[in-house]
Amino acid sequence: MKPIRIIWGWIALMATSCTSLQEVSLDVMQPAPVTLPVYARSVAVAAVTAPETKIEGQYRDPYGRIEKLDFDTAVDVSGLVARNTAKAMRNARYFSRTELCNPVPAASPVKAIKDSTAASVVLLLDSVVLHPMLTDYGHNDWGYLVSEFRIKGDLFFTLYIGDDEPPQTWVISDSIRWESFGTTPENRYHAIPEIGRCLNEFAQYAGYCTVRQFVPESRQADRFYFKTSSSLMKDAHRYWQTGQYDEASYLWEYLYETGKSDFSKAMAAANLALYCELCDNFIQAREWVKVSIALFGPETEGGKRMTAYLQEIEQRIADEEHLRFQLL
């Protein structure tokens, strides 16, 4: 059963003053965009050989005028990103083995990399295209001059899995930025690192972004349950607060079976849907959500809330199929 974190705060839901929502937060597993075969858990990371070139970017002044900006440095950005990708993959502890290969020529056969490393997967970084931008702004509300340096990068990858699988190619685009404040034009950049350090930090971030393509991750999902002033609802609320989720569900089920109004039964059904989701029983959760919508009425505020919740449950059902393979 997944841990949850209670977030205190009441939200008025209906016109009645004795009904409110208790917000909760659930740990939800998010599948990775790329699902590898179950046998593909050893990976070799390599970058295509790229010459060290000067970094070219742009400068935007406070009036919006753009000029060319050259950086006095020459760095093998592809090699940096490949090294940080391999490091991030090892740290994720998802792959059984991760090897970093030396840069390879563009025409180098991938089979040679597989044979030399015995890896089931080869992740080849074909190229990295950077778009650095230094922007100067005017004074902020506190009288400081504001500057921002941003590096946007496009990472071009090819994934080789097996001889019978066609290569997969995709582009990861993301950016990282630094802000600085100063009182004069001379010291406005003091908090922006020198370009070499910026590129290293970008490569670290790029490695993390790449690993997220393959590794499922946990996220926080906002949920809620209904609470009223009835003694049984109060008892169920206390049980939920102390982690006695089964006991809370028994009371909600009793309230659903004995409820005298559709509104009361709808709240109990909604709460049971949350309990089922907590237990990873998404199919049953979906059924309880549908019951709750029908009892509330689709056009009521409660019905609309539960319709939005139904979409979340449907997504979790769709994600479960991917996670079944990714978490083997």
Percentage of residues in DSSP E strands: 25-35%
What's the overall geometry? flat
Estimated structural class: alpha/beta
Summarize the biggest pleated sheet.
Answer: 7 strands, mixed
How many runs of DSSP E, i.e. beta strands?
10
Radius of gyration: 27 Å
Distance between the termini: 18 Å
Quickly describe the structure.
The protein has 328 residues and is an alpha/beta fold. The protein has helices spanning 77-92, 110-117, 195-211, 231-241, 245-258, 262-278, 282-296, 301-326, and strands spanning 4-12, 19-30, 42-47, 53-60, 66-75, 97-100, 121-139, 145-160, 168-182, 217-228.
Tell me what you see in this structure.
This protein has 328 residues and is of the alpha/beta class. Helices cover 38% and strands 34% of the residues. The protein has helices at residues 77-92, 110-117, 195-211, 231-241, 245-258, 262-278, 282-296, 301-326; strands at residues 4-12, 19-30, 42-47, 53-60, 66-75, 97-100, 121-139, 145-160, 168-182, 217-228. The strands form 2 sheets. Strands 3, 4, 5, 6, 7, 8 and 9 form a 7-stranded mixed beta sheet that branches. It has a 3-stranded antiparallel beta sheet with strand order 1-2-10. A hairpin with a 7-residue loop joins strand 8 and strand 9. Helix 1 packs across helix 3 (195-211), helix 6 packs antiparallel against helix 7 (282-296) and helix 7 (282-296) packs antiparallel against helix 8 (301-326). Mean pLDDT is 90; it is low at 3-17.
